[in-house]
Amino acid sequence: MKPPLAYCLFETALGWCAIAWREPGSPEATPAVALLQLPEATPELTGQRIVRDGGTHPSDPPPYLSRIIRKVGRHFNGDPQDFQDIVLDLGGAGPFAQQVYAAARTIPAGETRTYGELAKAMGCPAAARAVGQALGKNPVALIIPCHRVLASGGKPGGFSAPGGLATKIRMLAAEGAAAGLPVTLK
After folding, report:
1. In angstroms, what CA-CA distances link 97 with 60, 80, 94, 105, 168?
2. What is the pLDDT of residues 136-154, one digit of tens each?
3. Which one, 38, 54, 87, 132, has the greatest CB density within 10 A?
4. How far is residue 176's CA from residue 134's CA, in Å, rounded to a whole number?
5. Active site residue 8
6. Which pLDDT does position 36 carry in this prediction?
7. What is the chain's alpha carbon radius of gyration, rounded to the nearest angstrom?
8. pTM for the whole thing?
9. Of 150, 147, 99, 145, whose CA–CA distance to 121 is shortest?
10. Using H for helix, E for strand and C for coil, what is the string for the chain?
């Protein structure tokens, strides 16, 4: 049985986020990030969401997680960060979702792809809808940058994280990739 998920809330330029991680089995191992909660309307709602999604106990983040939290903060302040090296625990994601997540992680900050382009890059050109469905279940939005995946014709498409399309567009704007999208930053 896997150990429970520790979590903590932290403030960013977009609002209060939360991160949950699984403690490693040995002291020298790296904790694996299992959830990254984008901001809800209030810190309390963000906390409730991370608990609902699997966070079991609040905790102070270990140094590795503290570095990730600082990177998320810098990213949302307009200093795009690379999250490809973060160790993830994607738990129940199936093989196709894992493939989608791996492909999405290769999209650099400041760039976008369409669902169709991502499906084609994976060798599944007819799977654009399935790619979108997998990204809609992404448990670590930003680390797996589903916000960088757009609908055909460069339209924003959907976004299942709190705030929906407004959050997606704000995230793209923080990376300088919102050209042509209806940006409203607060």
Report:
1. 30, 25, 5, 12, 20
2. 999 999 999 999 999 888 7
3. 38
4. 25
5. no
6. 96
7. 16
8. 0.89
9. 99
10. CCCCEEEEEEEECCEEEEEEEECCCCCCCCCEEEEEECCCCCHHHHHHHHHHCCEEEECCCCHHHHHHHHHHHHHHCCCCCCCCCCCECCCCCCHHHHHHHHHHHCCCCCCCEEHHHHHHHCCCCCCHHHHHHHHCCCCEECCECHHHEECHHHCCCCCCCCCHHHHHHHHHHHCCCCCCCCCCCC
Could you tell me if 8 and 18 are in contact, meaning their C-beta atoms sit under 8 angstroms apart?
yes
The confidence band for 178, taking pLDDT boundaries of 50, 70 and 90, is low
End-to-end CA distance of the chain: 43
Catalytic site residue from 8, 17, 124, 146: 146
Residues in the chain: 186
pLDDT of residue 147: 92
- Cross-strand partners of 149: 113
